Backbone:
């Protein structure tokens, strides 16, 4: 109940405060690219139910049918010029404040996935994730903030995503569900703000103690290990 109250309060305030930024972005999107402002995609939410997740449009309309489908890699040619800026700064995620205010999502929780990506999670991860509202941010999205860079360096991005990233991301989301509470909620908000300001920081490992150990393929990834080592 406390978390839901904070979700309504903080998302409402954020929409009000950020309106001077959101309006110019809406106008710019309308006048550039394909003229689309919002992209609504079906994602898996609480209880395994689908809901429409709002984002600013950053990719070609038919991008799910092109290239790597719902998996986006670094320098993906399907991303529009303005979309690159919005994705890098995470401004494309701001319309999800509406999802939070309406109750589809929380500020903090497991990142909502498309059905295709959700089905890659191990069964135990899916059972845990379905217990809570998905989040604008969360442990999985913080740890994998540079996910597109990791996929870009892989010789087989889809295999790396399905067999390495998603199982570990599922374990992180299981950790969150087991540890959920107002303290974890507030810690995740703090860490999210920190990594937005300092994208290369590994502060998550210092603040959120006891996170599951990553698999060897991630430990050997330079971009992942460098951030982790800085705080261990």
Residues:
């Amino acid at each position: 109940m406390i978390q839901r109250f904070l979700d309504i309060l903080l998302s409402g305030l954020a929409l009000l405060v950020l309106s001077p930024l959101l309006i110019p972005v809406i106008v710019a999107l309308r006048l550039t690219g394909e003229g689309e402002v919002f992209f609504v995609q079906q994602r898996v939410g609480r209880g395994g139910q689908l809901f429409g997740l709002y984002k600013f449009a950053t990719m070609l309309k038919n991008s799910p049918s092109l290239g790597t489908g719902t998996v986006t890699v670094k320098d993906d040619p399907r991303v529009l010029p303005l979309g690159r800026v919005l994705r890098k700064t995470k401004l494309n995620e701001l319309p999800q404040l509406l999802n939070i205010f309406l109750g589809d999502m929380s500020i903090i929780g497991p990142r909502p996935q498309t059905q295709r990506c959700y089905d890659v999670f191990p069964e135990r991860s899916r059972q845990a994730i379905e217990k809570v509202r998905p989040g604008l941010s969360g442990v999985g999205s913080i740890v994998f903030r540079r996910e597109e860079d990791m996929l870009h360096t892989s010789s087989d991005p889809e295999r790396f995503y399905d067999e390495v990233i998603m199982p570990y991301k599922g374990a992180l989301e299981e950790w969150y569900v087991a540890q959920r509470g107002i303290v974890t909620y507030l810690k995740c908000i703090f860490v999210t703000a920190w990594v937005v300001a300092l994208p290369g920081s590994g502060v998550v490992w210092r603040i959120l103690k006891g996170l599951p150990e990553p698999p060897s393929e991630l430990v050997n990834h330079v971009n992942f290990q460098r951030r982790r080592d800085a705080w261990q």
